[in-house]
Amino acid sequence: MTTGIADLARLYEARGSGAVPAYQRVKDLVSEQITSGRWREGDALPSESQFVASLGLSRMTVNRALRELAAEGLIRRVMGVGSFVALAKGSSCLVEVHNIAEEVRRRGHRYEARVLALGEEPAGARTAAEIGVAEGRPVFHSRLLHSEDGTVIQIEDRYVNPGFAPGYLAQDFTARTPFSFLSEVAPLDRGEHIVEAVLPSPEEAALLGVAGSEPCLLIHRRTWSRGAPVSVARLLHPGSRYRLEGAFEAGRPAG
């Protein structure tokens, strides 16, 4: 970080008060450091206490500025650690099914995965209906964390029909994604996305490194091969780090 808290204090004082609220002046000052490139992705911001002491503002004012910057996706706040310049938002096409590892690498960033769970369990009623097996029959279950440059961007919770992917549990999903393996053994011929805005559970917030009040994007994804359902996945993204994109042409029916 090339602009320290003392430099920020001088810049803040030089601007005077005018009619702009104090919290907005703090936001503008921080935003300028980020958009100018003086503060880069992952850089740590001064602490709230440093802002308060150096700028002569109340903690409430500083907190509001940082909260709004986080809501706008410019910074990310980690409870008990501090605030950091946010990574550029990853994006995924809403109308297509892509490999998250390839999306991250296309952005020139480092992809990593951590396996939280991988095993076999009886299908509950909902899972059985979604992947076309009888309730209580064994299905494969995996749960992964996907990271971009060391920051978690997705929790993937997936159930798979064993009939389409008998080797699923033998895979090293730190080396390849479930999507990559399933695309090889059960080529996709149809996909379905349902998107919701949700709040993370306490466990999910801890895994994602976000506050429990941060809105997240939840994608329910089902995929089919040879006309039959293969898997259903629950993909949870922090809203401040991810966006969905889509395009359509006038006069063409939705696929």
Short description:
By secondary structure, this protein is of the alpha+beta class.
Report what the structure shows:
The chain has 255 residues and is α+β, with helices and mostly antiparallel strands. It has two domains: 5-85, Winged helix-like DNA-binding domain superfamily/Winged helix DNA-binding domain (Arc Repressor Mutant, subunit A, Orthogonal Bundle), CATH 1.10.10.10; 90-245, 3-Layer(aba) Sandwich (Chorismate lyase), CATH 3.40.1410.10. Helices cover 29% and strands 31% of the residues. It is built from eight helices and ten strands. The chain has helices at residues 5-15, 22-35, 48-55, 59-71, 100-106, 125-131, 178-185, 202-208, and strands at 75-78, 82-85, 90-93, 111-122, 138-148, 151-160, 190-198, 216-225, 228-238, 242-245. The strands form three sheets. It has a six-stranded antiparallel sheet with strand order 4-5-6-9-8-7. Strands 1-2 form a two-stranded antiparallel sheet. Strand 8 (216-225) and strand 9 form a beta hairpin. Helix 1 crosses helix 3 and helix 2 crosses helix 4 (59-71). The chain is elongated, with a radius of gyration of 22 Å. The N and C termini lie far apart (47 Å). Mean pLDDT is 85; it is low at 91-96 and 251-255.
